[in-house]
Amino acid sequence: MTPHPKLSISGLNKSFRNRAVKVLSDINLEVADNEFVSLVGASGCGKSTLLAIIAGLQESDNGDVLVDGAPISGPGIDRGVVFQSYTLLPWLTAQQNVEFALRETRYDPKEIADIARHHLDLVKLSRFADSFPSQLSGGMKQRVAIARALSYRPKILLMDEPFGALDALTRGQMQELLMQIWQEHKLTVIFVTHDVSEAVYLSDRIFVMGLNPGRVKETIPVSFARPRTGDEGHDPELRELQARVLRSIRQETSGQDVY
């Protein structure tokens, strides 16, 4: 794909229960700098486990995970992570939650405050900087989580179904916001979702994962020009692309109620 991928995974395997249950088998993929890719597949195919390994939150049994050619060795500020649950500290304000992520960086306290304010502005939450999580809607909490993940300038943004708990309108707004941030700040994004239409709308490529064990079954490019407006859903080529992704997933789940 590219001689110098931002992320490179080769020969990765992961098992649970003393290796009795194989979750991921021979994962091989590359992601380019500034590329937006999605991982889709049936429940239980290992999407979130793979993301956790890239984040350094879990170890693989074997295989290599390289960022800019260097192996990862646990969590690091080169990778920002956003989960479906907002994981905000309830006793801190939005501003303080973002500042908390910067506490181990080289920035001095004034710089930290300025960086936090800038990233809250980036996600359009400046007016709510002094609000606590209990005073924010679900979409606003997720925007704080995104601001926090971006605040330390990661090379890769890892997102595990970040909009899955939101209503349809808020979800659409968050997708548009993410696209704006990605296009303006040239991030590499790896996005886990169950929503095929979301994956098609957001991605440059889609990795369809197979089941039992989890593996990269198919890589599907999304060739629609950017910026995307959301109106492409009426395009027959886009509908066929969504159908292709769904067919690929359903081939794995025939006779199983897992998706």
Structure description:
With 259 residues, the protein is of the alpha/beta class. Helices cover 34% and strands 24% of the residues. The strands form 2 sheets. A 6-stranded mixed beta sheet has the order 6-7-8-3-9-10, sandwiched between helices. Strand 9 (205-210) and strand 10 (215-221) form a beta hairpin. Helix 2 (94-101) packs parallel to helix 4 and helix 3 (109-122) packs across helix 4. The chain starts with 6 loop residues before the first strand and ends in a 7-residue tail after the last helix. The model has no long low-confidence stretch (mean pLDDT 90).
Largest sheet, spatial ordering of strands = 6-7-8-3-9-10
| Quaternary structure of the protein | single chain
The run of helices and strands is EEEHEEEHHHEHEHEEH
> Averaging pLDDT over every residue, what do you get?
90
Approximate helicity band = 25-40%
CATH fold-level name of the largest domain: Rossmann fold
Q: What is the strand tally?
A: 10
Tally of domains: 2
Name of the CATH class of the largest domain:
Alpha Beta
Radius of gyration: 18 Å
**Unreliably modeled segments:** none
Content-based structural category: alpha/beta
SSE arrangement:
Blueprint: E1 7-16, E2 21-31, E3 36-41, H1 47-55, E4 62-67, E5 70-71, E6 79-82, H2 94-101, H3 109-122, H4 138-151, E7 156-160, H5 168-185, E8 188-192, H6 196-202, E9 205-210, E10 215-221, H7 236-252
Parallel strand pairs: 3-8, 3-9, 6-7, 7-8
Antiparallel strand pairs: 1-2, 1-4, 4-5, 9-10
Helix pairs in contact: 2-3, 2-4, 3-4
